[in-house]
Amino acid sequence: MALAKMKSTVQDDDLDGVVDAAIRAASGDMRAAILGLIRGQHEMQAEAVAATSAGYVRRRLRS
After folding, report:
1. Which domain of life is it from (predicted)?
2. How many CB atoms lie within 10 A of CB 33?
3. Considering just the CA atoms, what is the radius of gyration of the chain in Å?
């Protein structure tokens, strides 16, 4: 998806441009743009969970 091509780091003043780019990447369909962004967030969260070891998580919970 074209949304993956957008920069991962964005200045706060460029958020409007990023929103516009997401909508353009979804051919103007705002629902599809939002769905794509949510799917991307879920993928990043799953990668973060997979990259975190169970031992680290257990130690953090005891603190």
Report:
1. Bacteria
2. 20
3. 16
Kindly report, residue by residue over 8-58, the tens digit of the pLDDT: 555 666 899 999 999 999 999 999 999 999 999 999 999 988 888 766 656
Q: Can you read off the two tokens belonging to residue 39?
A: 């799917």
Q: Which two tokens stand for residue 37?
A: 């962004």
Q: Please give, one letter per residue, the 3-state secondary structure of the chain.
A: CHHHHCCCCCCHHHHHHHHHHHHHHCCCCHHHHHHHHHHHHHHHHHHHHHHCCHHHHHHHHHC
Tokens 């949304």 map to which residue? 3
Residue 7 neighbours by CB under 8 Å, 6+ apart: 18
